[in-house]
Amino acid sequence: MTQREYPVTKSDEQWRAELSPSEYAVLRQAGTERPFVGEYTDTTTEGVYSCRACGAELFTHTEKFPSHCGWPSFYAPSEADNVELHEDRSLGMTRTEVLCAQCGSHLGHVFEGEGYPTPTDQRYCINSVSMRLAPR
Fold first, then answer.
1. Coiled coil located at which positions (predicted)?
2. Which tens digit of pLDDT belongs to each residue from 11-67?
3. Residue 120 — left, alpha, or beta (φ > 0 → left; ψ -120 to 50 → alpha)?
4. Cβ(51)–Cβ(100) below 8 Å
5. Model-wide pTM > 0.90
6. Cα distances (angstroms) measured from residue 121 to each of 12, 88, 100, 118, 125
7. Class for the domain spanning 12-33+45-135
8. DSSP E strands: which ranges in the chain?
9. Fewer CB within 10 Å, N side or C side of the chain?
10. Which burial class, exposed, middle or buried, applies to 91 when counting CB atoms under 10 A from its CB (0-12, 13-18, 19+)?
């Protein structure tokens, strides 16, 4: 996790008590759920996607698109300052990690220039387990 203080800050013990083991592994340890198993991968339900750790709004159904990559994909957050982007040099490659701007939890990664027909040519590849969908 990054070193800055976030508006929502909890101890490791508090996060472990509030999150399931799979949620903790992704949100607090920057893990990744297996492709094509997340509950929101293919959903088209209208609503707001919020951080499962702190409840902050992240994305809405209007930014979601079918990328067929195995994880829910969005072309932008609902508001630019709802997420934070960091360089990630893990696994022998350079990627851009997406974090919740309120609690610093790992959400996934953002990729550019893949040719998707979206307004931003970006794909926010987000773990289902890192979000909750509140249907509209």
1. none
2. 999 999 999 999 999 999 999 999 999 999 999 999 999 999 999 999 999 999 999
3. alpha
4. yes
5. yes
6. 36, 20, 21, 5, 13
7. mainly beta
8. 47-51, 57-60, 64-65, 73-74, 83-88, 95-100, 106-112, 122-126, 131-135
9. C
10. exposed
Instruction: Answer yes or no: are the C-beta atoms of 105 and 130 closer than 8 Å.
Output: yes
What is the 3-class SS of 6-24, one letter each residue? CCCCCCHHHHHHHCCHHHH
Amino acid at 132: R
Distance CA 90, CA 31 (A): 11
Q: Which residue type occupies 90?
A: S
Return d(Cα 16, Cα 74) in angstroms, integer: 28
Quick one: DSSP state of residue 81? G
71 contacts 126 by C-beta, under 8 angstroms: yes
